[in-house]
């Protein structure tokens, strides 16, 4: 199909330019008028394939910053505000494209405009950018288009993305102190094995004093550390690469996500955050009018945990067989009694979205509480580990010194 370049004027007289696929110039003019743009000039241009030649090259795309969660959340909030104010969607996207700071997001919005100019729906255009808009995001936008409530769809998506960003930021803040302590301890262990213990080993060897077992173990460990540290470093790198490669496989990610839920202290936070994400996403899908089967499909892609996602897919399969949501949720064996009770009441009253929102609020508060106490819960563990490490080093180094002092006193 031919590609036409056009220039036109919007409702407020602003200049609008772009390209559009259509059989002829008349069809282009009709599409522009339907979107509130008065055509000024329409010319035939290159084919759609050659039109993409102006897109950034692979090197430029590689160096471009990625679109963050904050970028998508702000985009959703701005779209809600503009659409609620009655601004046409093409004009709204044009304004967001001009004001976007992130060049990658600006390019994505430009592609959305191009697809809308070509007569495609917004959800279809967003599906071309899965690295920016998730399947859940596209599904909610699709429902908003179908029901004529696109502004409310963006508003709900903004609230959901805000929750996601808030949880991630809080977890990063809570883990900052433990991470710094672990790195400092690792550096201290390296210095002790490279410099401290070898120096004391020379003194002990010169004095010919019988060394305690703990000291001999420390010296042997230090010798191995010095002699084979390149091998150890290589093994560590291979272990990290192997773990990363394994968790990128379907089965590996499933197993790792199941183990994450059982990690002491952190596992409880991950589990509650995942339940909150499930309840919030399911509530948004239900309120937006998404059918239950389709809603469970998109929710499974949102929970960000392969183990729980498979349980949600089992729920979908049960609903497809004609079973109730409650029965399928009980069969999975992963949901808490509170979630099951709310699902049961929601099915009976038809207020599934309201009750699941309450569940999400409850678990979000619990996640907030657990994250605030995360550092306090980790501090005793870190303190005990540091105490044991210092005790081992102290006994291993100073016991021979005491023995050496006794020998010197006898002389």
Question: How do the strands and helices of this protein lay out in sequence?
Answer:
Layout: E1 3-9, E2 15-21, H1 25-34, E3 38-44, H2 48-51, H3 58-63, H4 69-84, H5 89-99, H6 103-117, H7 122-126, H8 135-147, H9 150-207, H10 213-248, H11 250-260, H12 266-287, H13 292-300, H14 306-320, H15 325-332, H16 337-349, H17 352-372, H18 374-410
Antiparallel strand pairs: 1-2, 1-3
Helix pairs in contact: 4-5, 4-9, 5-6, 8-9, 9-10, 9-12, 9-17, 9-18, 10-11, 10-18, 12-13, 12-17, 13-14, 14-15, 15-16, 16-17
Q: If you had to describe this structure to a student in words, what would you say it looks like?
A:
- The chain is mainly alpha-helical.
- The chain is built from 18 helices and three strands.
- The chain has helices at residues 25-34, 48-51, 58-63, 69-84, 89-99, 103-117, 122-126, 135-147, 150-207, 213-248, 250-260, 266-287, 292-300, 306-320, 325-332, 337-349, 352-372, 374-410, and strands at residues 3-9, 15-21, 38-44.
- Strands 2-1-3 form a three-stranded antiparallel β-sheet.
- A hairpin with a 5-residue loop joins β1 and β2.
- α9 runs antiparallel to α12 (266-287), α9 (150-207) runs parallel beside α17 (352-372) and α14 (306-320) packs antiparallel against α15.
- The longest helix has 58 residues, at 150-207.
- Residues 47-55 have low confidence and may be disordered.
């Amino acid at each position: 199909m031919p590609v036409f370049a056009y220039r036109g004027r919007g409702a407020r007289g602003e200049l609008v330019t772009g390209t559009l696929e259509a059989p002829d110039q008349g069809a282009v003019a009709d599409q522009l008028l339907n979107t509130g743009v008065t055509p000024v000039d329409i010319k035939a241009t290159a084919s759609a394939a050659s039109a993409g030649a102006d897109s950034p090259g692979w090197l430029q795309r590689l160096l471009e910053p990625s679109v963050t969660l904050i970028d998508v959340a702000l985009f959703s909030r701005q779209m809600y505000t503009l659409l609620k104010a009655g601004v046409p969607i093409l004009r709204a996207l044009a304004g967001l494209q001009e004001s976007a700071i992130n060049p990658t997001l600006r390019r994505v919005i430009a592609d959305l405009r191009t697809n809308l100019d070509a007569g495609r729906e917004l959800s279809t255009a967003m599906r071309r950018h899965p690295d920016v808009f998730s399947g859940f995001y596209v599904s909610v936008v699709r429902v908003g288009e179908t029901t004529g409530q696109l502004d409310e769809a963006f508003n709900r998506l903004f609230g959901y993305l805000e929750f996601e960003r808030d949880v991630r930021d809080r977890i990063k803040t809570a883990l900052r102190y433990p991470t710094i302590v672990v790195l400092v301890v690792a550096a201290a262990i390296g210095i002790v094995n490279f410099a401290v213990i070898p120096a004391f080993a020379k003194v002990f060897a010169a004095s010919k004093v019988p060394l305690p077992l703990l000291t001999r173990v420390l010296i042997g460990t230090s010798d191995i550390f010095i002699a084979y540290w390149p091998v150890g470093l290589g093994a560590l790198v291979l272990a990290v690469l192997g773990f990363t490669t394994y968790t990128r496989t379907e089965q590996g990610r499933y197993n790792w996500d199941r183990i994450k839920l059982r990690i002491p202290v952190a596992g409880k936070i991950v589990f509650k955050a995942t339940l909150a994400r499930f309840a919030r996403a399911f509530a948004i899908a239900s309120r937006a009018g998404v059918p239950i089967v389709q809603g469970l499909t998109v929710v499974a892609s949102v929970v960000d945990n392969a183990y729980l996602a498979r349980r949600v897919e089992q729920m979908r399969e049960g609903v497809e067989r004609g079973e109730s949501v409650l029965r399928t949720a009980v069969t999975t064996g992963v949901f808490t009694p509170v979630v099951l009770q709310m699902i049961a009441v929601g099915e009976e009253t038809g207020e599934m979205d309201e009750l699941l929102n309450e569940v999400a609020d409850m678990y979000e508060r619990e996640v907030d509480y657990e994250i605030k106490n995360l550092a306090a819960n980790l501090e005793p563990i870190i303190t005990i580990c540091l105490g044991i490490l210092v005790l081992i080093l102290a006994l291993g180094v100073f016991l021979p010194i005491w023995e050496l002092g006794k020998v010197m006193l006898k002389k």
